Amino acid sequence: MDIITILFYLVTSVIIFSSISLVIVNNTVHAALLLVLIFFNSAILWLMLKAEFLSIVLVLVYVGAVLVLFLFVIMLLDIPVKKNSSPKLYLLFSVTTSLIMFAELYMIILFHNFSDEANIVVSSELNNTYEIGLMLFTEYVFSFEITAFILLVAIIAAIAINMSKKQRSLRQDPGKQILENKKSRLKIIKGDEL
Amino acid sequence: MYDYIKNILNTTITYYNELSVLPHTLILIGIIMVPLLIVVAYYTYAERKIIASMQGRLGPNVVGPKGLLQPFADGVKLFFKEIVIPTDSNKFLFLLAPVITFTVAFAAWAVIPFDSVMVLSDINAGLLYVLAMTSLGIYGIIIAGWASNSKYALLGAMRSASLIIAYEIAMGFALVGVIMVSGSLNLGDIIDSQKGSVFHWFWVPLFPLFIIYFISGVAETNRAPFDVAEGESELVAGFHVEYSGMGFAVFFIAEYANMILISALTTILFFGGWLSPFNISSLGNFELNGFVNNILLFLINDGIHWFIIKTFFFMFCFIWFRATFPRYRYDQIMRLGWKILIPITLVWIFVEMIFIYYEVEPWFAQGVVL
User: Are residues A39 and A115 in the same domain?
Assistant: First the structure.
Protein backbone atom coordinates (compact mmCIF):
# COMPACT_ATOMS: atom_id res chain seq x y z
CA MET A 1 0.00 0.00 0.00
CA ASP A 2 1.45 3.31 -1.00
CA ILE A 3 0.31 6.82 -0.12
CA ILE A 4 -2.03 7.03 -3.10
CA THR A 5 -3.86 3.87 -2.04
CA ILE A 6 -4.27 5.14 1.52
CA LEU A 7 -5.56 8.43 0.16
CA PHE A 8 -7.95 6.54 -2.09
CA TYR A 9 -9.44 4.61 0.83
CA LEU A 10 -9.66 7.77 2.90
CA VAL A 11 -11.49 9.68 0.18
CA THR A 12 -13.84 6.83 -0.71
CA SER A 13 -14.74 6.22 2.92
CA VAL A 14 -15.53 9.92 3.33
CA ILE A 15 -17.73 9.72 0.22
CA ILE A 16 -19.57 6.63 1.43
CA PHE A 17 -20.13 7.90 4.96
CA SER A 18 -21.29 11.32 3.85
CA SER A 19 -23.60 9.77 1.23
CA ILE A 20 -25.24 7.62 3.91
CA SER A 21 -25.59 10.54 6.31
CA LEU A 22 -26.86 12.72 3.45
CA VAL A 23 -29.88 10.44 3.22
CA ILE A 24 -30.30 10.09 6.98
CA VAL A 25 -29.99 13.67 8.29
CA ASN A 26 -33.18 15.64 8.90
CA ASN A 27 -31.75 19.11 8.40
CA THR A 28 -31.81 20.03 4.70
CA VAL A 29 -28.95 22.52 5.00
CA HIS A 30 -26.76 19.81 6.50
CA ALA A 31 -27.74 17.51 3.64
CA ALA A 32 -26.73 20.12 1.05
CA LEU A 33 -23.40 20.68 2.78
CA LEU A 34 -22.78 16.93 2.84
CA LEU A 35 -23.43 16.91 -0.90
CA VAL A 36 -20.71 19.58 -1.22
CA LEU A 37 -18.34 17.29 0.67
CA ILE A 38 -19.22 14.36 -1.62
CA PHE A 39 -18.58 16.39 -4.77
CA PHE A 40 -15.31 17.70 -3.44
CA ASN A 41 -14.07 14.24 -2.59
CA SER A 42 -15.16 12.89 -5.99
CA ALA A 43 -13.07 15.68 -7.51
CA ILE A 44 -10.08 14.36 -5.54
CA LEU A 45 -10.81 10.86 -6.89
CA TRP A 46 -10.75 12.21 -10.44
CA LEU A 47 -7.53 14.04 -9.72
CA MET A 48 -6.01 10.72 -8.67
CA LEU A 49 -7.02 9.30 -12.07
CA LYS A 50 -5.07 12.19 -13.67
CA ALA A 51 -8.29 13.75 -14.97
CA GLU A 52 -7.28 17.21 -13.79
CA PHE A 53 -9.63 19.15 -16.04
CA LEU A 54 -12.73 17.17 -15.06
CA SER A 55 -11.90 17.35 -11.38
CA ILE A 56 -11.30 21.10 -11.32
CA VAL A 57 -14.39 21.75 -13.42
CA LEU A 58 -16.44 19.60 -11.05
CA VAL A 59 -15.33 21.83 -8.19
CA LEU A 60 -15.81 25.00 -10.22
CA VAL A 61 -19.25 24.23 -11.66
CA TYR A 62 -20.98 21.93 -9.19
CA VAL A 63 -19.42 22.95 -5.90
CA GLY A 64 -18.80 26.59 -6.76
CA ALA A 65 -22.05 27.41 -8.54
CA VAL A 66 -24.81 24.77 -8.63
CA LEU A 67 -24.73 23.78 -4.97
CA VAL A 68 -24.48 27.41 -3.93
CA LEU A 69 -27.82 27.96 -5.63
CA PHE A 70 -29.18 24.85 -3.86
CA LEU A 71 -28.09 26.28 -0.51
CA PHE A 72 -29.54 29.65 -1.47
CA VAL A 73 -32.97 28.20 -2.09
CA ILE A 74 -32.93 25.97 0.99
CA MET A 75 -31.85 28.78 3.30
CA LEU A 76 -34.36 31.26 1.94
CA LEU A 77 -37.25 28.79 2.08
CA ASP A 78 -36.41 28.01 5.72
CA ILE A 79 -37.78 24.46 5.64
CA PRO A 80 -38.64 23.31 9.17
CA VAL A 81 -36.84 20.22 10.44
CA LYS A 82 -39.35 17.38 10.75
CA LYS A 83 -39.41 13.66 11.24
CA ASN A 84 -40.48 11.36 8.44
CA SER A 85 -44.14 10.51 8.71
CA SER A 86 -43.88 6.99 7.32
CA PRO A 87 -40.32 5.74 7.73
CA LYS A 88 -41.20 2.17 6.83
CA LEU A 89 -42.54 3.11 3.41
CA TYR A 90 -39.46 5.24 2.72
CA LEU A 91 -37.25 2.38 3.80
CA LEU A 92 -38.99 -0.05 1.44
CA PHE A 93 -38.60 2.25 -1.55
CA SER A 94 -35.03 3.23 -0.81
CA VAL A 95 -33.85 -0.33 -0.22
CA THR A 96 -35.51 -1.54 -3.43
CA THR A 97 -34.06 1.27 -5.55
CA SER A 98 -30.58 0.91 -4.14
CA LEU A 99 -30.66 -2.86 -4.62
CA ILE A 100 -31.70 -2.48 -8.26
CA MET A 101 -28.99 0.11 -8.89
CA PHE A 102 -26.38 -2.01 -7.15
CA ALA A 103 -27.37 -5.03 -9.25
CA GLU A 104 -27.09 -2.98 -12.45
CA LEU A 105 -23.68 -1.64 -11.54
CA TYR A 106 -22.48 -5.08 -10.52
CA MET A 107 -23.62 -6.55 -13.83
CA ILE A 108 -21.81 -3.85 -15.78
CA ILE A 109 -18.60 -4.40 -13.83
CA LEU A 110 -18.95 -8.16 -14.24
CA PHE A 111 -19.63 -8.32 -17.97
CA HIS A 112 -17.80 -5.29 -19.30
CA ASN A 113 -14.05 -5.44 -19.72
CA PHE A 114 -12.67 -2.18 -18.34
CA SER A 115 -9.01 -3.01 -18.63
CA ASP A 116 -8.55 -1.53 -22.12
CA GLU A 117 -10.07 1.84 -21.27
CA ALA A 118 -8.17 2.03 -17.99
CA ASN A 119 -4.88 1.66 -19.85
CA ILE A 120 -5.72 4.51 -22.20
CA VAL A 121 -6.43 6.88 -19.33
CA VAL A 122 -3.27 6.10 -17.40
CA SER A 123 -0.88 6.07 -20.35
CA SER A 124 -2.01 9.47 -21.62
CA GLU A 125 1.04 11.72 -21.40
CA LEU A 126 -0.59 14.68 -23.11
CA ASN A 127 -2.04 17.74 -21.47
CA ASN A 128 -5.45 16.64 -20.25
CA THR A 129 -7.21 20.00 -20.64
CA TYR A 130 -5.79 20.50 -24.12
CA GLU A 131 -6.91 17.03 -25.22
CA ILE A 132 -10.46 17.50 -23.96
CA GLY A 133 -10.71 20.89 -25.65
CA LEU A 134 -9.49 19.43 -28.92
CA MET A 135 -11.97 16.55 -28.75
CA LEU A 136 -14.90 18.82 -27.88
CA PHE A 137 -14.27 21.20 -30.73
CA THR A 138 -13.42 18.68 -33.44
CA GLU A 139 -14.95 15.25 -32.99
CA TYR A 140 -17.93 16.14 -30.78
CA VAL A 141 -18.52 19.68 -31.99
CA PHE A 142 -22.17 19.09 -32.93
CA SER A 143 -23.17 17.51 -29.63
CA PHE A 144 -21.27 20.30 -27.90
CA GLU A 145 -23.11 22.99 -29.84
CA ILE A 146 -26.47 21.30 -29.28
CA THR A 147 -25.81 21.18 -25.51
CA ALA A 148 -24.91 24.86 -25.55
CA PHE A 149 -28.07 25.64 -27.51
CA ILE A 150 -30.28 23.72 -25.07
CA LEU A 151 -28.73 25.63 -22.17
CA LEU A 152 -29.31 28.92 -23.97
CA VAL A 153 -32.96 28.02 -24.55
CA ALA A 154 -33.31 27.15 -20.87
CA ILE A 155 -31.83 30.49 -19.83
CA ILE A 156 -34.11 32.45 -22.15
CA ALA A 157 -37.13 30.46 -20.98
CA ALA A 158 -36.32 31.13 -17.32
CA ILE A 159 -35.96 34.85 -17.99
CA ALA A 160 -39.16 34.93 -20.08
CA ILE A 161 -41.16 33.32 -17.27
CA ASN A 162 -39.93 35.92 -14.82
CA MET A 163 -40.39 38.92 -17.08
CA SER A 164 -44.02 39.78 -16.71
CA LYS A 165 -45.26 43.14 -17.89
CA LYS A 166 -47.25 43.62 -14.71
CA GLN A 167 -45.52 45.74 -12.10
CA ARG A 168 -45.44 43.65 -8.96
CA SER A 169 -43.04 45.57 -6.79
CA LEU A 170 -41.90 49.13 -6.36
CA ARG A 171 -38.58 48.64 -8.00
CA GLN A 172 -36.40 51.35 -9.49
CA ASP A 173 -35.83 51.57 -13.21
CA PRO A 174 -32.17 52.52 -13.74
CA GLY A 175 -32.85 53.61 -17.33
CA LYS A 176 -35.32 56.24 -16.19
CA GLN A 177 -33.02 57.25 -13.34
CA ILE A 178 -30.14 57.92 -15.69
CA LEU A 179 -32.34 60.00 -18.02
CA GLU A 180 -33.37 62.27 -15.16
CA ASN A 181 -31.57 65.60 -15.02
CA LYS A 182 -31.54 68.71 -12.93
CA LYS A 183 -34.30 70.41 -14.93
CA SER A 184 -36.83 67.62 -14.55
CA ARG A 185 -36.25 67.35 -10.81
CA LEU A 186 -35.59 70.81 -9.50
CA LYS A 187 -37.64 73.92 -10.03
CA ILE A 188 -36.16 77.16 -8.81
CA ILE A 189 -38.67 79.84 -7.96
CA LYS A 190 -37.45 83.33 -7.42
CA GLY A 191 -38.71 85.28 -4.45
CA ASP A 192 -40.58 87.94 -6.42
CA GLU A 193 -42.47 85.31 -8.47
CA LEU A 194 -44.35 84.16 -5.42
CA MET B 1 10.38 -14.88 8.93
CA TYR B 2 13.35 -13.18 7.28
CA ASP B 3 11.26 -12.41 4.20
CA TYR B 4 8.55 -10.98 6.35
CA ILE B 5 10.92 -8.60 8.13
CA LYS B 6 12.52 -7.64 4.83
CA ASN B 7 9.11 -6.92 3.39
CA ILE B 8 8.16 -4.68 6.29
CA LEU B 9 11.52 -2.90 6.04
CA ASN B 10 11.02 -2.28 2.35
CA THR B 11 7.56 -0.86 2.86
CA THR B 12 8.89 1.40 5.59
CA ILE B 13 11.58 2.69 3.28
CA THR B 14 9.09 3.42 0.50
CA TYR B 15 6.88 5.18 3.03
CA TYR B 16 9.83 7.22 4.18
CA ASN B 17 10.71 8.21 0.64
CA GLU B 18 7.17 9.25 -0.12
CA LEU B 19 6.70 10.97 3.20
CA SER B 20 9.90 12.98 2.85
CA VAL B 21 8.03 15.02 0.23
CA LEU B 22 5.65 16.13 2.96
CA PRO B 23 8.03 18.14 5.22
CA HIS B 24 9.62 19.66 2.12
CA THR B 25 6.21 20.86 0.88
CA LEU B 26 5.27 22.04 4.37
CA ILE B 27 8.42 24.20 4.54
CA LEU B 28 7.57 25.67 1.12
CA ILE B 29 4.01 26.40 2.28
CA GLY B 30 5.48 28.12 5.33
CA ILE B 31 7.76 30.21 3.13
CA ILE B 32 4.68 31.44 1.25
CA MET B 33 2.31 31.72 4.23
CA VAL B 34 4.46 33.62 6.73
CA PRO B 35 5.36 36.61 4.50
CA LEU B 36 1.76 36.63 3.28
CA LEU B 37 0.41 36.89 6.82
CA ILE B 38 2.88 39.68 7.59
CA VAL B 39 1.77 41.51 4.44
CA VAL B 40 -1.86 41.02 5.50
CA ALA B 41 -1.07 42.48 8.94
CA TYR B 42 0.62 45.53 7.47
CA TYR B 43 -2.00 45.85 4.73
CA THR B 44 -4.55 46.68 7.44
CA TYR B 45 -2.12 49.24 8.85
CA ALA B 46 -1.47 50.67 5.38
CA GLU B 47 -5.19 50.90 4.71
CA ARG B 48 -5.82 52.87 7.88
CA LYS B 49 -2.84 55.16 7.29
CA ILE B 50 -3.60 55.80 3.61
CA ILE B 51 -7.30 56.44 4.13
CA ALA B 52 -6.45 58.67 7.08
CA SER B 53 -4.07 60.77 4.99
CA MET B 54 -6.63 60.96 2.17
CA GLN B 55 -9.18 62.26 4.66
CA GLY B 56 -6.79 64.59 6.45
CA ARG B 57 -6.47 62.54 9.64
CA LEU B 58 -3.47 61.02 11.36
CA GLY B 59 -4.46 57.36 11.54
CA PRO B 60 -2.96 54.92 14.06
CA ASN B 61 0.11 56.56 15.60
CA VAL B 62 0.27 55.45 19.24
CA VAL B 63 1.49 51.85 19.37
CA GLY B 64 5.16 51.76 18.41
CA PRO B 65 6.97 54.33 16.24
CA LYS B 66 4.42 55.92 13.87
CA GLY B 67 1.94 53.25 15.00
CA LEU B 68 3.89 50.51 13.25
CA LEU B 69 3.05 47.91 15.91
CA GLN B 70 -0.69 48.58 15.63
CA PRO B 71 -1.48 45.37 13.63
CA PHE B 72 0.13 43.24 16.35
CA ALA B 73 -1.72 45.10 19.09
CA ASP B 74 -4.97 44.42 17.20
CA GLY B 75 -4.02 40.77 16.75
CA VAL B 76 -3.25 40.27 20.44
CA LYS B 77 -6.46 42.04 21.42
CA LEU B 78 -8.58 39.84 19.14
CA PHE B 79 -6.75 36.70 20.26
CA PHE B 80 -7.61 37.26 23.92
CA LYS B 81 -11.24 38.17 23.36
CA GLU B 82 -13.96 35.72 24.21
CA ILE B 83 -15.56 33.83 21.34
CA VAL B 84 -19.30 34.33 21.78
CA ILE B 85 -21.50 31.68 20.22
CA PRO B 86 -25.07 32.95 19.65
CA THR B 87 -28.00 31.03 21.12
CA ASP B 88 -29.75 28.55 18.82
CA SER B 89 -26.88 28.79 16.36
CA ASN B 90 -25.35 25.76 14.77
CA LYS B 91 -22.15 25.49 16.80
CA PHE B 92 -20.21 23.16 14.50
CA LEU B 93 -20.95 25.12 11.33
CA PHE B 94 -20.49 28.42 13.16
CA LEU B 95 -16.93 27.45 14.02
CA LEU B 96 -16.29 25.72 10.69
CA ALA B 97 -17.10 28.78 8.53
CA PRO B 98 -14.00 30.89 9.38
CA VAL B 99 -11.82 27.82 8.85
CA ILE B 100 -13.25 27.26 5.34
CA THR B 101 -12.82 30.92 4.41
CA PHE B 102 -9.24 30.97 5.64
CA THR B 103 -8.23 27.68 3.97
CA VAL B 104 -9.70 28.60 0.62
CA ALA B 105 -8.18 32.09 0.66
CA PHE B 106 -4.72 30.62 1.09
CA ALA B 107 -5.13 27.46 -1.05
CA ALA B 108 -5.14 29.48 -4.28
CA TRP B 109 -1.61 30.72 -3.52
CA ALA B 110 -0.28 27.22 -4.27
CA VAL B 111 -0.13 27.89 -8.01
CA ILE B 112 0.91 31.57 -7.99
CA PRO B 113 4.34 31.95 -9.63
CA PHE B 114 6.41 34.56 -7.79
CA ASP B 115 9.37 34.13 -10.10
CA SER B 116 10.32 31.96 -13.06
CA VAL B 117 11.25 29.18 -10.61
CA MET B 118 9.53 30.22 -7.38
CA VAL B 119 6.20 28.38 -7.52
CA LEU B 120 4.88 25.76 -5.12
CA SER B 121 3.01 23.67 -7.65
CA ASP B 122 3.38 24.31 -11.36
CA ILE B 123 0.22 22.60 -12.64
CA ASN B 124 -1.12 22.74 -16.17
CA ALA B 125 -4.61 23.95 -15.31
CA GLY B 126 -3.35 26.60 -12.87
CA LEU B 127 -5.82 29.26 -13.93
CA LEU B 128 -8.77 26.89 -13.57
CA TYR B 129 -7.50 25.86 -10.14
CA VAL B 130 -7.37 29.49 -9.01
CA LEU B 131 -10.88 30.08 -10.34
CA ALA B 132 -12.18 26.96 -8.56
CA MET B 133 -10.57 27.92 -5.27
CA THR B 134 -11.87 31.50 -5.34
CA SER B 135 -15.35 30.20 -6.15
CA LEU B 136 -15.21 28.03 -3.02
CA GLY B 137 -14.75 31.06 -0.78
CA ILE B 138 -18.49 31.66 -0.96
CA TYR B 139 -19.14 28.65 1.29
CA GLY B 140 -17.45 30.24 4.27
CA ILE B 141 -19.68 33.28 3.84
CA ILE B 142 -22.95 31.37 3.33
CA ILE B 143 -22.30 28.97 6.20
CA ALA B 144 -21.29 31.82 8.51
CA GLY B 145 -24.44 33.74 7.64
CA TRP B 146 -26.75 30.78 8.12
CA ALA B 147 -25.14 29.26 11.20
CA SER B 148 -25.14 32.49 13.24
CA ASN B 149 -28.94 32.45 13.49
CA SER B 150 -29.20 36.17 12.86
CA LYS B 151 -31.19 37.94 10.17
CA TYR B 152 -28.49 40.53 9.56
CA ALA B 153 -25.91 37.82 9.04
CA LEU B 154 -28.21 35.84 6.74
CA LEU B 155 -29.06 38.91 4.65
CA GLY B 156 -25.39 39.81 4.41
CA ALA B 157 -24.52 36.29 3.33
CA MET B 158 -27.26 36.29 0.68
CA ARG B 159 -26.12 39.62 -0.73
CA SER B 160 -22.54 38.49 -0.75
CA ALA B 161 -23.34 35.18 -2.43
CA SER B 162 -25.42 36.72 -5.21
CA LEU B 163 -22.72 39.33 -5.75
CA ILE B 164 -20.03 36.68 -6.06
CA ILE B 165 -22.12 34.56 -8.46
CA ALA B 166 -22.85 37.58 -10.67
CA TYR B 167 -19.29 38.84 -10.87
CA GLU B 168 -17.66 35.43 -11.17
CA ILE B 169 -19.14 35.07 -14.65
CA ALA B 170 -17.63 38.36 -15.86
CA MET B 171 -14.36 37.36 -14.22
CA GLY B 172 -14.38 33.95 -15.94
CA PHE B 173 -15.03 35.53 -19.34
CA ALA B 174 -12.20 38.01 -18.80
CA LEU B 175 -9.94 35.03 -18.11
CA VAL B 176 -11.13 33.35 -21.33
CA GLY B 177 -9.67 36.33 -23.19
CA VAL B 178 -6.32 35.83 -21.47
CA ILE B 179 -6.36 32.12 -22.28
CA MET B 180 -7.11 32.85 -25.94
CA VAL B 181 -4.14 35.17 -26.34
CA SER B 182 -1.64 33.16 -24.31
CA GLY B 183 -2.82 29.72 -25.46
CA SER B 184 -2.23 28.18 -22.05
CA LEU B 185 -3.86 27.66 -18.67
CA ASN B 186 -0.53 27.52 -16.86
CA LEU B 187 0.20 30.78 -15.04
CA GLY B 188 3.94 30.55 -15.75
CA ASP B 189 3.30 30.10 -19.48
CA ILE B 190 0.86 33.02 -19.46
CA ILE B 191 3.61 35.27 -18.06
CA ASP B 192 6.16 33.88 -20.52
CA SER B 193 3.92 34.75 -23.45
CA GLN B 194 3.93 38.42 -22.31
CA LYS B 195 7.71 38.74 -22.75
CA GLY B 196 9.02 41.97 -24.25
CA SER B 197 8.38 45.34 -22.69
CA VAL B 198 5.48 47.17 -21.05
CA PHE B 199 3.57 47.21 -24.30
CA HIS B 200 3.80 43.45 -24.75
CA TRP B 201 1.91 42.80 -21.53
CA PHE B 202 -1.70 41.77 -21.94
CA TRP B 203 -3.18 45.01 -20.64
CA VAL B 204 -2.66 46.53 -24.10
CA PRO B 205 -4.50 44.00 -26.29
CA LEU B 206 -6.99 43.12 -23.54
CA PHE B 207 -7.62 46.53 -22.02
CA PRO B 208 -11.41 46.17 -21.51
CA LEU B 209 -10.96 42.71 -20.04
CA PHE B 210 -8.32 44.03 -17.64
CA ILE B 211 -10.69 46.74 -16.39
CA ILE B 212 -13.54 44.25 -16.04
CA TYR B 213 -11.33 41.71 -14.29
CA PHE B 214 -10.23 44.24 -11.72
CA ILE B 215 -13.76 45.55 -11.13
CA SER B 216 -14.99 41.97 -10.68
CA GLY B 217 -12.08 41.29 -8.36
CA VAL B 218 -13.05 44.24 -6.17
CA ALA B 219 -16.67 43.03 -6.19
CA GLU B 220 -15.63 39.47 -5.41
CA THR B 221 -13.69 40.44 -2.33
CA ASN B 222 -16.69 42.49 -1.12
CA ARG B 223 -14.70 45.68 -0.98
CA ALA B 224 -15.92 49.24 -1.41
CA PRO B 225 -17.67 50.42 -3.60
CA PHE B 226 -19.24 46.94 -3.75
CA ASP B 227 -19.35 46.30 0.00
CA VAL B 228 -23.13 45.95 0.28
CA ALA B 229 -22.57 42.60 1.97
CA GLU B 230 -21.29 44.35 5.04
CA GLY B 231 -22.73 47.82 4.50
CA GLU B 232 -22.31 49.24 7.99
CA SER B 233 -25.29 51.55 7.83
CA GLU B 234 -27.65 48.80 6.63
CA LEU B 235 -26.56 45.43 8.00
CA VAL B 236 -24.22 46.31 10.89
CA ALA B 237 -21.39 44.18 9.49
CA GLY B 238 -22.96 41.59 7.21
CA PHE B 239 -22.25 37.91 7.47
CA HIS B 240 -19.76 38.17 10.34
CA VAL B 241 -21.90 40.24 12.71
CA GLU B 242 -22.03 37.50 15.32
CA TYR B 243 -18.33 36.66 15.25
CA SER B 244 -16.00 37.92 17.93
CA GLY B 245 -12.38 37.34 18.83
CA MET B 246 -10.43 34.96 16.64
CA GLY B 247 -13.40 34.03 14.43
CA PHE B 248 -13.68 37.65 13.35
CA ALA B 249 -9.91 37.95 12.97
CA VAL B 250 -9.79 34.90 10.69
CA PHE B 251 -12.50 36.36 8.42
CA PHE B 252 -10.58 39.61 8.34
CA ILE B 253 -7.29 37.92 7.42
CA ALA B 254 -9.02 35.89 4.70
CA GLU B 255 -10.58 39.01 3.19
CA TYR B 256 -7.24 40.78 3.01
CA ALA B 257 -5.50 37.66 1.68
CA ASN B 258 -8.14 37.53 -1.07
CA MET B 259 -7.48 41.18 -1.94
CA ILE B 260 -3.77 40.43 -2.24
CA LEU B 261 -4.60 37.36 -4.35
CA ILE B 262 -6.70 39.41 -6.78
CA SER B 263 -3.89 41.97 -7.03
CA ALA B 264 -1.34 39.24 -7.68
CA LEU B 265 -3.58 37.63 -10.32
CA THR B 266 -4.12 40.96 -12.09
CA THR B 267 -0.36 41.38 -12.13
CA ILE B 268 0.19 37.89 -13.52
CA LEU B 269 -2.57 37.93 -16.13
CA PHE B 270 -2.37 41.47 -17.45
CA PHE B 271 0.88 43.03 -16.21
CA GLY B 272 3.50 40.40 -16.91
CA GLY B 273 4.07 39.04 -13.39
CA TRP B 274 7.78 39.00 -12.62
CA LEU B 275 8.75 40.49 -16.03
CA SER B 276 10.62 43.76 -16.14
CA PRO B 277 8.92 46.70 -17.91
CA PHE B 278 12.15 47.46 -19.79
CA ASN B 279 13.40 45.68 -22.86
CA ILE B 280 16.88 44.77 -21.66
CA SER B 281 18.45 44.06 -25.05
CA SER B 282 17.42 47.49 -26.37
CA LEU B 283 18.96 49.36 -23.43
CA GLY B 284 22.56 48.50 -24.36
CA ASN B 285 25.45 48.08 -21.95
CA PHE B 286 25.99 50.20 -18.88
CA GLU B 287 29.34 51.93 -18.51
CA LEU B 288 29.37 52.16 -14.74
CA ASN B 289 31.71 50.63 -12.19
CA GLY B 290 31.16 46.97 -11.36
CA PHE B 291 29.11 47.04 -8.16
CA VAL B 292 26.60 49.75 -9.11
CA ASN B 293 26.30 48.21 -12.55
CA ASN B 294 25.43 44.83 -11.07
CA ILE B 295 22.81 46.27 -8.77
CA LEU B 296 21.25 48.29 -11.58
CA LEU B 297 21.21 45.24 -13.83
CA PHE B 298 19.54 43.18 -11.11
CA LEU B 299 16.89 45.83 -10.58
CA ILE B 300 16.19 46.26 -14.28
CA ASN B 301 16.12 42.52 -15.01
CA ASP B 302 13.10 40.29 -14.48
CA GLY B 303 12.66 39.20 -10.91
CA ILE B 304 10.38 38.82 -7.93
CA HIS B 305 10.79 42.54 -7.05
CA TRP B 306 8.80 43.53 -10.16
CA PHE B 307 6.04 41.12 -9.15
CA ILE B 308 5.94 42.62 -5.66
CA ILE B 309 5.96 46.23 -6.91
CA LYS B 310 3.09 45.60 -9.35
CA THR B 311 1.07 43.66 -6.79
CA PHE B 312 1.52 46.46 -4.24
CA PHE B 313 0.26 48.97 -6.78
CA PHE B 314 -3.01 47.05 -7.22
CA MET B 315 -3.29 46.57 -3.47
CA PHE B 316 -3.02 50.35 -3.17
CA CYS B 317 -5.82 50.69 -5.75
CA PHE B 318 -8.15 48.69 -3.50
CA ILE B 319 -7.61 51.21 -0.70
CA TRP B 320 -7.81 54.13 -3.11
CA PHE B 321 -11.24 52.95 -4.35
CA ARG B 322 -12.48 52.63 -0.80
CA ALA B 323 -11.52 56.19 0.01
CA THR B 324 -12.91 57.56 -3.27
CA PHE B 325 -16.20 55.94 -4.23
CA PRO B 326 -19.50 55.87 -2.37
CA ARG B 327 -21.21 52.50 -1.98
CA TYR B 328 -23.27 51.23 -4.90
CA ARG B 329 -26.93 50.53 -4.39
CA TYR B 330 -27.69 46.80 -4.48
CA ASP B 331 -29.76 46.75 -7.69
CA GLN B 332 -27.20 48.95 -9.43
CA ILE B 333 -24.47 46.44 -8.62
CA MET B 334 -26.51 43.64 -10.15
CA ARG B 335 -27.24 45.74 -13.22
CA LEU B 336 -23.56 46.59 -13.66
CA GLY B 337 -22.55 42.95 -13.36
CA TRP B 338 -25.16 41.27 -15.51
CA LYS B 339 -26.08 43.93 -18.05
CA ILE B 340 -22.85 45.85 -18.62
CA LEU B 341 -19.75 43.84 -17.72
CA ILE B 342 -20.81 40.44 -19.10
CA PRO B 343 -21.92 41.81 -22.54
CA ILE B 344 -18.65 43.77 -22.85
CA THR B 345 -16.59 40.66 -22.16
CA LEU B 346 -18.61 38.63 -24.68
CA VAL B 347 -18.16 41.27 -27.37
CA TRP B 348 -14.46 41.56 -26.66
CA ILE B 349 -13.98 37.78 -26.84
CA PHE B 350 -15.69 37.84 -30.23
CA VAL B 351 -13.47 40.71 -31.44
CA GLU B 352 -10.41 38.86 -30.18
CA MET B 353 -11.54 35.73 -32.00
CA ILE B 354 -11.66 37.63 -35.30
CA PHE B 355 -8.20 39.14 -34.66
CA ILE B 356 -6.73 35.74 -33.90
CA TYR B 357 -8.38 34.18 -36.94
CA TYR B 358 -6.87 36.84 -39.23
CA GLU B 359 -3.54 36.62 -37.38
CA VAL B 360 -3.40 40.27 -36.28
CA GLU B 361 -0.20 40.76 -34.30
CA PRO B 362 -0.64 41.55 -30.59
CA TRP B 363 -3.57 39.16 -30.28
CA PHE B 364 -2.15 36.41 -32.45
CA ALA B 365 0.89 35.02 -30.71
CA GLN B 366 3.39 32.97 -32.68
CA GLY B 367 3.81 30.35 -30.03
CA VAL B 368 0.13 29.46 -29.83
CA VAL B 369 -0.74 25.99 -31.07
CA LEU B 370 -4.01 26.12 -32.94
Answer: no
